[in-house]
């Protein structure tokens, strides 16, 4: 009974402070949306316009205390004694738009700086005089863009592929949908979970035919890929292939993101049976997904990789630039037509890599010549590449690389994985961790991951390069140079890359490429 009397008394005190007036207080469109850490203005104003300089203005959270306001303005000044401590130093009276004259015309909007997830919710705007009061409610939504979407594909024995799509760290709860250009897709599962921080994760999976093109959308973020069913294992290998399928948690993967509107990067992991077990070295890959290394971490292992001058008759190699002779004044009459990138224009690099972590960068274009369309970049365990224009090497042959054509980027896996659409990067970063079994590729200009695959690497491995034929732009292996710093004898490393080209495509000037290591 005592508690009930206190509640009734509190309501009476609130209501008796002033008499209500009708339709004098208005608020802007609701809800108001703000990115985490940014500043929001919750609009609220008197209508018709009238001065609020001598009125009481109180912003508070409904249900959390009229007497512990977010902001309190009375007697022509802000009062801080009773203010909710969570808003101290972050709130002030703002302007609902650029034409507002503020309190003089009854604009009592709330300006909230450094928005947090805990700030999301409803806010009451309360204005009163000695004779009347009015109140209105404004909702605030604090938004956080989640992590790049992770798309995983696992081939299963019945001829289908299990695709899962997940992303974490969103506010508010994101939408997720699957798209197929030919039919409507209904996922087998769509689940949301909320972390203690208040951020939301989403996960969905779907079963589809093994040869498919599909997109996963999380909000405006699209991850799109085209898959083809892995080839049947050769006769006599059924035992180890079946064993590999049972261990399909092992990663053979690619990561790619296409943000149609936001221009960010996401990840794609593709699991397949072909590299789960290596019959040659009897090595099993570690179980579980391997998160790709950040480019900032990878660049700490920079190595100066150079092309092997092996006398390839279809290439010209000078100053770490590789170009096909078809772009030279004297064309080789034996250069075959057909595919733009074949083993005829592929070479290895030095040094050979037997252990450890290694990172290098390759320029694939410049402002004068544009971007290369046709290329291979990666690693191989083959020291001498056969001069065979009909050979299309893959991971089963000891070739792990990313390739580019006019229509897609593609990994050299047995299970064909196309990353759609191009263009590729201007500067490609390559990171190899032999013990961990990771090979990752980066867009250096955007400081973002393009794709990552893992395999049971055994050394020595040789850097692999193929400039293809017909492109104006050369392929250049960028070298890290050490320059003396100023003061104290410190040194800093810089990557030098091509910026302008002369009449023959050779560099005239250089600039710092990417971050200082």
From TrEMBL:
- Cite the InterPro entries for this sequence: B30.2/SPRY, B30.2/SPRY_sf, BTN3A2-like_Ig-C, Butyrophylin_SPRY, ConA-like_dom_sf, Ig-like_dom, Ig-like_dom_sf, Ig-like_fold
Q: How does it sit in the membrane?
A: Single-pass type I membrane protein
Q: Which residues form the signal peptide?
A: 1-18
Recorded hits in PROSITE patterns, A to Z, give: B302_SPRY, IG_LIKE
Residues annotated as transmembrane = 240-259
Q: What are its GO cellular component terms?
A: membrane
Q: Where in the cell is it found?
A: Membrane
Q: Chief localization class?
A: membrane
Start and end of every Ig-like domain?
20-139, 148-226
* SMART domains per UniProt: IG, SPRY
Pfam families, alphabetized = C2-set_3 (PF22705), SPRY (PF00622), V-set (PF07686)
The text of the family note is: Belongs to the immunoglobulin superfamily. BTN/MOG family.
- What name does this protein carry? Uncharacterized protein
UniProt organism field: Pagothenia borchgrevinki
């Amino acid at each position: 009974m005592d508690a009930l009397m206190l509640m009734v008394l509190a309501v009476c005190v609130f209501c008796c402070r002033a008499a209500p007036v009708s339709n004098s207080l208005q608020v802007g469109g609701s809800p108001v949306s703000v990115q985490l850490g940014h500043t929001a203005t919750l609009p609220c104003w008197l209508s018709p316009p009238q001065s609020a300089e001598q009125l009481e203005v109180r912003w508070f959270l409904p249900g959390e205390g009229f007497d512990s306001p977010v902001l309190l303005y009375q007697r022509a000044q802000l009062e801080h004694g009773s203010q909710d401590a969570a808003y101290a130093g972050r709130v002030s009276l703002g302007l609902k738009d650029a034409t507002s004259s503020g309190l003089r015309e009854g604009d009592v909007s709330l300006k909230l700086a450094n928005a947090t997830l805990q700030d999301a919710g409803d806010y009451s705007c309360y204005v009163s005089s000695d004779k009347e009061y009015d109140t209105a409610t404004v909702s605030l939504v604090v938004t956080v863009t989640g992590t790049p979407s992770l798309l995983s594909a696992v081939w299963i024995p019945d001829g289908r592929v299990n695709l899962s799509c997940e992303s974490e760290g969103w506010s508010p709860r994101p939408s997720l949908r699957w798209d197929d250009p030919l039919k409507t897709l209904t996922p087998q599962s769509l689940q949301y979970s909320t972390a203690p921080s208040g951020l939301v994760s989403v996960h969905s999976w779907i079963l589809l035919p093994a040869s498919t093109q599909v997109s996963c959308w999380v909000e405006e973020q699209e991850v799109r890929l085209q898959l083809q069913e892995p080839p049947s294992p050769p006769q006599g290998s059924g035992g180890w292939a079946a064993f590999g399928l049972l261990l399909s948690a092992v990663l053979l993967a690619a990561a790619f993101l296409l943000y149609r509107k936001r221009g960010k990067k996401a990840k794609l992991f593709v699991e397949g049976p072909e590299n789960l077990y290596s019959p040659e070295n009897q090595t099993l890959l570690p179980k579980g997904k391997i998160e790709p290394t950040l480019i900032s971490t990878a660049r700490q292992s920079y190595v100066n990789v150079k092309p092997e001058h092996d006398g390839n008759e279809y290439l010209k190699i000078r100053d770490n630039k590789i170009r096909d002779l078809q772009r030279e004044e004297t064309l080789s009459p034996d250069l075959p037509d057909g595919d733009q990138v074949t083993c005829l224009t592929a070479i290895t690099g030095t040094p050979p890599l037997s252990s450890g972590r290694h990172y290098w960068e390759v320029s694939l274009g410049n402002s004068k010549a544009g971007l290369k369309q046709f290329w291979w970049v990666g690693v191989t365990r083959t020291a001498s590449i056969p001069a065979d224009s009909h050979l299309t090497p893959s991971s089963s042959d000891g070739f792990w690389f990313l390739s580019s054509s006019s229509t897609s980027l593609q990994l050299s896996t047995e299970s064909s994985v196309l990353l759609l659409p191009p263009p590729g990067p201007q500067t490609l970063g390559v990171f190899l961790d032999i013990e961990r079994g990771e090979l990752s590729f980066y867009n250096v200009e955007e400081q973002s991951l393009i794709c990552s695959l893992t395999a049971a690497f055994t050394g020595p491995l040789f850097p692999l390069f193929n400039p293809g034929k017909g492109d104006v732009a050369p392929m250049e292996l960028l070298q890290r140079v050490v320059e003396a710093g100023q003061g104290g004898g410190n040194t800093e490393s810089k990557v030098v890359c091509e910026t302008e080209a002369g009449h023959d495509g050779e560099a005239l000037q250089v600039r710092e490429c990417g971050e200082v290591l």
